[in-house]
Amino acid sequence: MGNEPLLVGDLILCEILQGARTEIHARTLEEELRKFEIVPMLNPELAVTAAKNYRVLRSEGVTIRKTIDLIIGTFCIAFKHTLLHDDRDFGPMQTHLGLKTAL
Hints:
Elements: E1 7-9, H1 10-18, H2 23-33, E2 37-39, H3 44-59, H4 67-78, E3 82-84, H5 90-97, E4 100-102
Helix pairs in contact: 1-2, 3-4
């Protein structure tokens, strides 16, 4: 991944651990993810900004399917983080809101 520092948002940690196949798998995933900085991703101001971003995208004819994706994208935009992802909901945020992504 180069020399860029990585961080994991608490919401992303939750999503990944939800997908664990077993408790052992979940513990292993959590242990590995805790090697990175884990940060909170939502506060009242960011919630308002995420809602505004949703309305901006809706006015462009785009509906984001999952609120959590909207929060993650808004967090990355607000704090100028590059998002590593594999989710089609982030494409419109890149196009219309300036989200930076890594492939």
